Amino acid sequence: MKNSYDVIVVGAGPGGSITAKTCAEAGLDVLLIEKRQEIGDPVRCAEGVGKEGLKRHIEPDNRWIAAEVKGSKILAPDGTEIKMSEEASSGKAGYTLERKVFDRALAQQAAMAGTEVMVKTRAIGLLRNNGMVRGINAMYMGETHEIRANIVIGADGVESKVGRWGGIDTSLKPGDIDTCAQFLVTNIDAGDYSKFYLGEIYTPGGYVWVFPKGKNTANVGLGILGSKAGNTRPISLLHKFIETYLPHAKILEMVVGGVPVSGPIKKTVTDGLMLVGDAARQSDPLTGGGIINAMDAGKMAGEVCIKAKEKGDYSAKTLKEYEDKWRATIGKELSKSLLVKNMLLKLSDEQLNQLAHSLEGVDTSKMALQKVLPILFKKNPRILWELRTLFV
Ligand SMILES: Cc1cc2nc3c(=O)[nH]c(=O)nc-3n(C[C@H](O)[C@H](O)[C@H](O)COP(=O)(O)OP(=O)(O)OC[C@H]3O[C@@H](n4cnc5c(N)ncnc54)[C@H](O)[C@@H]3O)c2cc1C
User: Fold this and answer.
1) What pLDDT, in 10s, does the model give residues 217-242?
2) Are 269 and 323 in a shared domain?
3) Is the shortest distance between the CB of 289 and ligand 1 below 6 Å?
4) Which one is predicted more confidently, 175 or 208?
5) How does the average pLDDT of the chain come out, rounded?
6) 3-state class of 365 per DSSP?
7) Domain limits at 366?
8) Please, what sign has the CA dihedral across residues 372, 378, 380, 385?
9) Are residues 191 and 74 in the same domain?
């Protein structure tokens, strides 16, 4: 480890590794640090991604694809099913990953492009000079190191501290976070569709997912919106779901974690600092999916690092190009999802059933979600009135 780099990336998740790779490929001197001793482990994810988004960053590889799914099924509280193909799921369903291997493959790409990777290295603070962020303090093997850089990337996930250290408000209220629990289960018929169960009957303010990870195995999990949780523990609800709907399931692994569902935050750059992925609250407020958004944002952040280096200007004014770019793309989608999420939160289980029934006789299996929503809206204008801005 040297004591100075062009770019230091904190966190070797998908967002951090893609940022590092993008910068290193352009010849920038990059350090990628990860506090854990193994990149990608322990997993805190249901591992579902769309094929299209994934292929923008890496060629699919059987080493880290656990299962390929045909699409998704949305189940209303009374069991009514809406089936959508992979394309119809807006590219949001496609593969279930093996993230332990996937995250490492992304970090490997970054390393092969020239990034220096340090594991078991934790950022513990930022270095500053005249108000500019100019590097980090890092802890490695019990010793503190000052490492300088022109740009620091905070890709340190949902519990991000880098943004806060840089004076960026990344705080989340209880209604901005889903608390999740998941089991990897076997001895079930996992099918070949990702399943989403909606309604209070399953979980308050979230949903249950069943993502196939092979013939008899699946990630089965649920999230509870913080503001609706009360004394309910996600793990208890999950046990209840499994006992009721998958009584023969055998549990192999457990995952707990939080997903930011706030939608876009006000600011993600400051002088010498950019935030990427969950650290920038870029996960989808409706689905909680954040892998592809983190990678897309990482690419954008990396490209802006390259331009900043060419200009020799690392001020917030130059880095703002990243902020503008992600807001115009990812940000727009997040805002739409937030609108849908907030509306869904107000619906009773009865209304959710009504929406599902209104699609009876409509073949959604080959439709894009963008086509399904207007049909739902037309058939249920009173229930879905708040979404009208999406269709005009
Ligand atoms: C239960 C659950 C299920 C989910 N399911 C899905 C899903 O199916 N599909 C999907 O797309 N998304 C899913 N997500 C969300 C997804 O996991 C995240 O959006 C994604 O991992 C974000 O990537 P990232 O690179 O921003 O952060 P992360 O992947 O969280 O990576 C951040 C990294 O930073 C490291 N780090 C943190 N602090 C420091 C520090 N101080 N110094 C050094 N390193 C540090 C962490 O150890 C971590 O490795 C799920 C999340 C949860 C909790």
Assistant:
1) 999 999 999 888 888 899 999 999 99
2) yes
3) yes
4) 208
5) 94
6) helix
7) 342-390
8) positive
9) yes
Question: Is 238 inside a domain boundary?
Answer: yes
How far is the centre of ligand 1, averaged over its atoms, from the C-alpha of 279 (Å)?
9
* pLDDT tens digits, one per residue of 150-175: 999 999 999 999 999 999 999 999 88
Residue 189 · residue 74 · CB < 8 Å:
no
Residue 50 covered by a domain: no
Closest approach atom of ligand 1 to CA 14:
25
Between the alpha carbon of residue 292 and those of residues 48, 284, 289, 345, the distances in Å are 10, 10, 8, 25
Q: Atom 17 (ligand 1): residue with closest C-alpha?
A: 45
178 lies in the same domain as 252: yes
DSSP 8-state code for residue 385: G
179 with 147, same domain: the answer is no
Answering whether pTM is above 0.85, one says: yes
pLDDT tens, position by position, 20-66: 999 999 999 999 999 999 999 999 999 999 999 999 999 999 999 99
Q: How far apart are the first and last CA of the chain?
A: 54
What pLDDT, on a 0 to 100 scale, did the predictor assign at position 92? Answer: 60
- CATH code for the domain of 149: 3.50.50.60
Do 213 and 75 belong to one domain? yes
Name the domain boundary from 260, 279, 302: 260
Say if 210 falls within a structural domain: yes
Q: What percent of the chain is modeled with pLDDT above 90?
A: 81
CA–CA gap between residue 332 and residue 330 (Å, rounded): 6
Pocket test for ligand 1, best of 38, 45, 65, 281 (most atoms within 8 A of CB): 45
Torsions phi, psi of 218, nearest 5? Answer: -155, 155
Q: Is residue 295 part of a domain?
A: yes
The structure tokens listed for 93 are 């369903």
- CA of residue 371 to ligand 1 center, whole Å: 31
Strand partners, 210: 195, 220
CATH number at residue 250: 3.30.9.10
The minimum-distance atom of ligand 1 relative to the CA of 209 is 8
